[in-house]
Specification:
There is one protein chain. This protein is mainly alpha-helical. The chain has one domain. The protein has eight helices and no strands. The protein has helices at 3-16, 21-38, 42-59, 64-77, 82-103, 108-117, 122-137, 144-159. Helix 2 (21-38) packs parallel to helix 4 (64-77) and helix 5 runs antiparallel to helix 6 (108-117).
Length: 160
């Protein structure tokens, strides 16, 4: 359920190069509902602990909407398991680095792309080359929303 706003963000990220705040608001509503239903208030602490991480990504050049979406999507996933939320951020960074390198036309990105996908899953090995191709062809920058969604799916499946 939490992947729906992220999935919508993929469409807008590819089509317009934007992640709209409504997706972030929907993720926050889902987070509040999940925290209330499960009683896992640690997810709120996790969300606050991730703020500096998100700000660091923003200052490194990742879009503001992408940073907010990563923040709330991983916090929502942490209501399932704190480990899943942490895994999501780790997987996202593993996916982001090669995409960023390829966009900037650095050859090391192609090598690290393969290395980043190996520890993730068969799903990542299948989907990641497509996401890299889309990001490499995109003139505006790295499309982070598809990488967020892939990290979300892989992290959720790794703890299920």
């Amino acid at each position: 359920m939490g992947g729906i706003p992220v999935a919508c963000s993929i469409v807008t990220d590819i089509a317009r190069g934007k992640v709209y705040n409504i997706a972030v608001v929907l993720e926050l509503v889902l987070l509040a509902a999940a925290v209330y239903a499960t009683g896992r208030y640690i997810s709120i602490v996790y969300l606050l602990a991730l703020l500096p991480f998100s700000m660091a990504l923003f200052s490194a050049g990742l879009g503001g909407g992408d940073c907010k979406l990563l923040l709330v999507a991983s916090a929502l996933l942490s209501t399932l398991s704190l480990k899943a939320g942490v895994y999501m951020c780790m997987y996202f960074l593993a996916l982001l680095h090669p995409a960023w390198c390829l966009h900037r036309k650095r050859k090391i990105g192609a090598i690290s792309a393969v290395l980043a996908a190996i520890p993730l899953s068969k799903l990542a090995l299948c989907a990641y080359p497509v996401l890299l191709a889309i990001s490499a062809l995109n003139k505006r920058g790295v499309l982070a929303a598809p990488l967020i969604m892939l990290a979300y799916i892989v992290a959720a499946s790794s703890v299920a």
